[in-house]
Amino acid sequence: MSNTSNTPVLLLALPILGLSVVTGCDAPEDEARPSYGDPADDLQDHAAGVESPCSVGWYTIDCHANETTLSIDGVERTVLWQVPSGEAPAGGWPVVLAFHGTNDPAAKFFDWNYYNAFDQYFGGYYQMKTTQALLDNGFAVLAPKARSVTGGIYWDTNIPPHAENWDDSPDAAFMDRLLEEIEDGTFGPLDDGSKYAMGLSSGGYQSSRMAVAYPSEFEAIAIQSASYATCISSFPCDVSAADLPANHAATLLMAGVWDTIVPLYTIESYSDALDDNGTDVVLEVVNASHQWTSSSPGWVLEWFQTH
After folding, report:
1. Contact 156, 186 (CB under 8 A)
2. Can you tell me the distance from the alpha carbon of 169 to that of 163, in angstroms, rounded to the nearest whole number?
3. How many C-beta atoms surround the C-beta of residue 90 within 10 A?
4. What does the alpha-carbon distance between residue 277 and residue 255 come to, in Å, rounded to a whole number?
5. Is 109 helix (H, G, I), strand (E, B) or coil?
6. What is the pLDDT of residues 14-43, one digit of tens each?
């Protein structure tokens, strides 16, 4: 299905490319799904009557992230995280791993300021509102940080030689440890049996990697402006059902029709493979570029709530 109102902008989000500032996105004309307003509005908690862990001001949102550092093979890896307000359910909070894009700080999942230009990159306001929507509706959010390597900060999943040899990558060791720490309660009372993943660009490919490398661990994933775990940018994305685990997590794909960084055809290839695999998949396409959009918070929340 398609919405047609977000202003098209050009963004650069690959290890070999730079960054460009995002302009604001208008709310979609089709209001069948929730929209969360414009940054210049008086921002209000959208989950009426629910105490939020986030402080919301006229031009700021701060979800007060905790920070935990893990030492893995002598290398320190950082995770930002927050849990919903109130008492956790008996089994713990369901948890979402939120993966940032290339050179796009993980902190933007928890802290947004209208006057900070960097916070506007990649539809940063709607990224922040996605986090807030999840926290206010009973999901814990963990945002691990990728390594700083030659060319920038990005995930190993689709970068040679790790794309075809994931198990030996530094990020594989990080994810293995992260899943162990979730089970051990390092990030609070979390439901180890209700894990989800989401991300944009490099973080979207990393979300796909979670469903491919750990198919029994994740209930569902939501990918914004990215495709299959080993695909990259506009290069041909040849993926078929044979490449996918039989129990690949239910997948929400969100794409911008104007995205020249990760073109729609590469995402459609993944969608078709998932459909052939018998995986629950939905592809949402909006009139936008390489960014979170005003539809993202509602789509992601609904997808995770129904899986």
Report:
1. no
2. 9
3. 7
4. 21
5. helix
6. 333 323 223 233 333 333 333 334 433 333
Tell me the two tokens of residue 295.
Answer: 């539809």
- Residue type at 284 in one-letter notation: E
Stated pTM of the model:
0.86
CATH class of the region 2-305: alpha beta
In DSSP notation, 66-77 reads: EEEEEEETTEEE
Residue 5 pLDDT exceeds 60: no
Q: Tokens for 219?
A: 């209930």
Q: What are phi and psi of 252, to 5 degrees?
A: -100, 120
Distances 93 to 70, 135, 196 between C-alpha atoms, Å: 21, 10, 12
Name the residue ranges covered by the structural domains of the chain. 2-305
Give me the mean pLDDT over the 79-94 stretch: 96
* Strand order across the 60-62 sheet: 55-56, 60-62, 111-113
The tokens for 123 are: 């539809």
Share of the chain above pLDDT 90, in %: 79
CA distances from 289 to 73, 122, 252, 292, 299 (A): 38, 9, 17, 9, 17
